[in-house]
Amino acid sequence: MDRFVIRGGVPLRGTVHISGAKNAALPCLAACLLTDEPVTLDNLPAVRDIKTTCHLLATLGVGLEDQGPAPGSAPSPVRRRLRVEAQKITSVEAPWELVRTMRASTLILGPLVARGGQARISMPGGCAIGARPIDLHLKGLEKLGAQISTEHGMVVARAGRLRGARIYFERITVTGTEDLMMAAVLADGETVLENAAREPEVEDLASLLTKMGARIEGAGTSTIRIQGVPRLGGAAHAVIPDRIEAGTFVIAAGITGGDLTIADCRAGHLLTVIEKCREVGLHIETPTPTSLRVSTDKPLQAADMTTEEYPGFATDMQAQYMALVTQAAGTSLLTETIFENRFLHALELARLGANIRVEGNRAVVRGPTPLSGAPMTASDLRASASLVLAGLAAQGETIVERVYHIDRGYEHIEEKLSALGADIRRVPA
Ligand code: EPZ
Fold it and tell me: Is 127 among the catalytic positions?
């Protein structure tokens, strides 16, 4: 397992280009199952979860042709272009060995049931950040007329043609909204998704589906109306930039006292994170709708933060924010409302000298505390980003083990950081 070796204390300077959004690319890849015509997807990030999803689609019989710059041949971002053709589906099963490495495999449920009337997916276990059930996905599919059963750890969904229905999400779920939107586009009649997720990635999926011929209104709001159509066709679509990668680099600038331009992003997808970082004392300008300029010209000040569904402060930015406020004067109260166990990074940050007390879904961070380099172990994707950020600010050498977690969602992050002056190198296992 690769590790990162970081020598901190270097203010980052320069321009970083943001890759395509992993969490937009995953549902868009799944949406290709809805048609037998080719779909071209652009701006795909070269991250592990995309590779895993392509492998999953290939096991279902889907043809995939990489048309963009070969990974690694171009400087990051690689911006891969894939031609995806689900002309015939030869399997409807997502096996355990794939699902356990990527829970987002559940995104094939809706499309497979809509396209061919059945899907079998290994019941995803929990993960480091929580139990992460898929009950809302399954209840929604039943509302649309699917029969759901569990056999030997597999969830089996069967249906004739799905029928439109009104589905109210008792809890806002991003991939639940995406899964059921994809199921509903081929259903007979109208489907209304209420209390739906409003994330930009949901909107991006709806944009692709509409290009394929779907009839969707209200994506990006809490109520999404879908008129089913008999079939969908091919399309070409470029996924949106990764707002979480962009937010991570905003914090990288703040925690190192640097001066960064963050290019190819969407400032409009990060408004709550930008406002909160300004409250902490980062100087953030938006020279264009697709770029940010981040610098720090005064000491950082503590600020409380609560994670919420979009457009609130993203839970995927909580770990990175915690690293930042370890360097802020005062006490910051962080409240995690989305997942039940998303403070694993706190224990590791404490090894560098951070003053953090975790109480249930709250973490109390007192700063500023000087950080000194130490070995740490990553536990999940965004926690590992937090450890890297802290290492960039720590004096001396920091080692981050198990960086395969970070490779799931960040494209060659050590190359992007090195290009900004960071002293970071990947040491292969
Ligand atoms: C998506 O996960 C993202 N993943 C996550 O990003 C992100 O943290 C999360 O949304 C919240 O924003 C992808 O888009 C691939 P949820 P998802 O369903 O859809 C509960 C990353 O770092 N819930 O919105 O799985 C659930 O337990 C990843 O890129 C149910 O109870 O999250 C959680 O408490 C990590 N039943 C809450 O809802 C269900 O059927 C929100 O989960 C579904 C969810």
Answer: yes
